[in-house]
Amino acid sequence: MLEALARAVLKPFDTGLRWRGHEPETPSLALTSLGTAGFTLESQGRTVVIDPYVSRPTLWRALTRPLVPDAEAIARSVPRADDVLVGHAHFDHVLDAPEVCRQTGARLLGSQAVAFCGLAAGLPASQIRVTEGNEDIESGPLTLRGLPSVHGRVYFNRIPLPGDLTAPPPWPPRLRDLPHGQVLNWLVRTPTHTLVHIDSADFIDEALAPQRADILCLCAIGRHARPNYTRRAIELLQPRYVVPCHWDHFFGPFTPTPLEVPKADLAGFVEEISAAGATPVVLAPGDTLSV
Ligand SMILES: [Zn+2]
Using an 8 Å Cβ cutoff, are 197 and 188 in contact? Predict the structure, then answer.
């Protein structure tokens, strides 16, 4: 009922915005959207997954029941992973990550709060790498680095579910059991490219300033609460490509045409990215940017 109402009022995204750029014959990096803030990055035979979230219970279910990762949907969407990076411990970033690691044997990387989620879900400590950021972590020929960040303000100019975890939460968790904990933006360096992933609409200028990115995944929802958000992120990181993330409605199963979450204003975001001098790359869930 609640879900049907949400779907009736949410705007389907304009498929004309979709990325139709040139694909190189021998790409050295492929970035595939998983929807929400999730991506799979493949490079040098290595698969790095960021913020996977494909279980997508309906809004009603998410508000009234424990959140159970959908093992089948995860196996379908994320069949391979070497490392799984999580930006913060909200359910739409962390919920599926331990199950991806369980199925693939991948390492789980994130804050102490993310590590508590991994332990709660039954992952052995040896499969979890806790980081507070500001350190390079090897991943085969790639390098992973957390950049300390802060959570954006979303609706009503508030940070949703603030706070931290001091112990493993119940698992499966309820939505309210998962405060964001420490927030990290992830930097992934391959021998050919650098990618930065900002999974909620805020950042710390000093943490981004020393870095450059060829590709920037940038959160759409909540960006109006941070003055000059898009322009400043692009000014600091000087990306060629900016991939909007966290713009699609993530309650309920995937639909052939994704719906925009309220206030995502994807078309406006695309204009902001172009005006700041970068190339916007809109990926619907399942779409890939190859470079
Ligand atoms: Zn969040």
Answer: yes
Lowest-confidence range among 153-157, 178-182, 249-253, 274-278?
153-157
For residue range 278-289, list pLDDT tens digits in order: 999 999 999 999
Across the chain, which distance is largest between two alpha carbons, in Å? 49
Q: Where are the domains of the chain?
A: 31-280
Of 17, 13, 19, 22, nearest to 32 by C-alpha is 19
Is the distance from CB of 33 to CB of 281 less than 8 angstroms? no
Residue type, 240: R
3-state SS assignment for residue 157: helix
What single-letter DSSP state applies at residue 276? T
CA of 228 to the centre of ligand 1 (A): 20
Q: Residue 165: helix, strand or coil by DSSP?
A: coil
CA of 98 to the centre of ligand 1 (A): 17
Task: Kindly list the protein residues that place their beta carbon closer than 5 angstroms to ligand 1, a single-atom ion.
Answer: 90, 200
Task: Report the CATH superfamily, name and number, of domain 31-280.
Answer: Ribonuclease Z/Hydroxyacylglutathione hydrolase-like (3.60.15.10)
pLDDT digits (tens, 9 = 90+) for 6-35: 777 888 999 999 999 888 989 999 999 999
